[in-house]
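Chapter review. Work through the record for ABC transporter ATP-binding protein before attempting the end-of-chapter questions.
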Amino acid sequence: MSTAVRARDLGKRFGRRWALSDCNLEVPAGRVVGLVGPNGAGKSTLLNLAVGVLTPTTGSVEVLGSRPGAGPEQLARVGFVAQDSPTYGALSVEDHLRLGARLNPGWDESLAQARIARIGLDLHQRAGRLSGGQRAQLALTLAVAKRPELLLLDEPVASLDPLARREFMQELMEAVAEHELSVVLSSHLVSDLERACDHLIVLGESRVQVAGDIDDLLATHHRLTGPRRDPADLPAGQQVISASHTDRQTTLLVRTESPVHDPSWTVSSLDLEDLVLTYLRNASKQASAPTLEVLR
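Structure tokens for ABC transporter ATP-binding protein:
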């Protein structure tokens, strides 16, 4: 299967507020996909729709070719670690493994035990007494040991210190390589996604702003700096993503499949953070722009 998640005109409204709207995307299978955006952008809503915890207000979402939560077989194919890596505080690590074995028909006990031993968790320790990083590792173990085809992670490292975050991401990458998982990793920390992901989805103001393979996105976005000029004068095929001007100078961020040959421009590349922040700023500006009404 070439597509892990497919959304068409997907939207979710809570009361009068749209947490996600007009979402159209395809998440490729066999990849590690970074879902990035600020708090409130719709990342958690999208993932909860993908696992069937929420139902769409508009549109549709398909996961591994089926409706999310369509039945036991479909549920067994998807692993999910919700925000804050939820565990049961009164249960021990060993209790969590027993629970995982009961709830998941494809449970791999040897994998679960090996991961717990490798990360150094005490089987008799209650989850409520574990550190944030340890709880995150326990939650990841439960998700991986059910042997899913698709693993969805909702900001699993947001509350961890830098060392615990690095250890979690390393364990995740090892699990992906060993078990050939498709992964969607939600985060607002671009640095974590840059190390781990090969495909990117940027959410801003409840909408998809840009999506694609990271290498392709970086190769087709350029910063142009030169004498002040009107961006409308650029050749066809150079899409202006953002523009800024001084009295004498223009700086543009453009997306194009072709080389920029105009010698009046100084062309420089972007890093992933530059790319993400530009799209998020554009989304914020569009959302805050006043709506003009025609008086009759």
